Amino acid sequence: MIKVIIFLLSTCVLYSCYPIYSMQSAKALEKGKVSGVVGLSSPILNPILGARVGLGQNYELGVKSSLESNEIGLKYSFKEDQNQNFQHAIQLTAGNTLYNYYTQSNEALKISVFTAPYLLSLHNNSNIVRLYTKIGPSFSIYNQHYNYGLINSIGISFGKKVSINTELYSHIPINSKGYKFSSNSTEFNYFFQTGIAIGIVIGKF
Q1: Is the pTM above the cut of 0.85?
Q2: Would you list the domain boundaries of the chain?
Q3: Distances in Å between the alpha carbon of 90 and those of 25, 71, 75?
Q4: Which of 30, 54, 97, 99 is the most buried (most CB within 10 A)?
Q5: Cis, bond preceding 117 (omega within 30 deg of 0)
Q6: Which of these, 137, 142, 155, lies nearest to 199 by C-alpha position?
Q7: DSSP code, position 205
Q8: Topology of domain 2-202, per CATH?
């Protein structure tokens, strides 16, 4: 059990914690409306920063950052009536992450990451409590090497104009291919990641 815990912690230290967390419902912001999030993810504490802006016609643009990782994404909400209790959406994202692998040469890999998650959220009538989740494929590329994975998260949100949110998230490899460092034959699969995120959203969730 101790070895498993050490392994989980080490994967989060080596991996620069790509912002897998969601911290948003499947609703799209109204055109020109802005929402932001600040918080922490664990088990190794990392900052959560993000912002979303409504583009109109059920489209929304969002950005997220976590240490040495960044992501930008476009979301489309399928429901015209944003007041309905059940909401769902699809999102396309592109980002990058700097994976630090401390060898004698202090190598680091700059990896491009793309995801296409499906988002779902359930809202109570007053829209003060929300259950939300997302799941979808991920694809990364580095120096003509590639890897596929699955991202997913599930969380709960309380509040209206300012909300407190917590969620569990994970990033799981699908294929067995890894990346190799030029200085040795070490191969790794950076996709494995699991953790908890807690954040405060200012604006519409």
Answers
A1: no
A2: 2-202
A3: 11, 16, 6
A4: 97
A5: no
A6: 155
A7: -
A8: Lipocalin (2.40.128)
